[in-house]
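Let's study a protein:

___
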Amino acid sequence: MNPYYEHRQVVTFADTNVVGNVYFTHYFEWQGRCRERFLADQAPEVLQALAGDLVLVTVDCSCEFFAELYALDEVSIRMSLGGVDDNRVTMDFGYYRVGAGPARLVARGRQTIACLRRGPGGALVPVEIPGPLRRALDRYSPVAAA
């Protein structure tokens, strides 16, 4: 089993800026897209809970850039579990240019989400990480990869 969940996509011209490289905000969009595909593929029960009172709130997000991506590059976004602390989950992301030759790391990101529920009056209340999400994430932890 891979030590990461992988989402692949091709960079579009809409992802680039006037200079021709991928505009930095798209890396954050891709984190969200990878996370959403992960939920759909690995923990669909969580998506059902999100239609109810469960809320996943991004509380921290970062990205370091090492090389550029351009239109029509294929990118592999690889998500793994960075850590768990109470009701918070940190996910690590590696962005790799793939195609001819070995994959090349072009950026590295991190995102922390908090698990909350809507309480009375719409107030957000911290809750335990849902079991299906925890089990799905555990498959991509550094311990599982070892």
Remarks:
- The chain has a mean pLDDT of 93.
- The two ends are 11 Å apart (CA to CA).
- The first helix runs from residue 25 to 42.
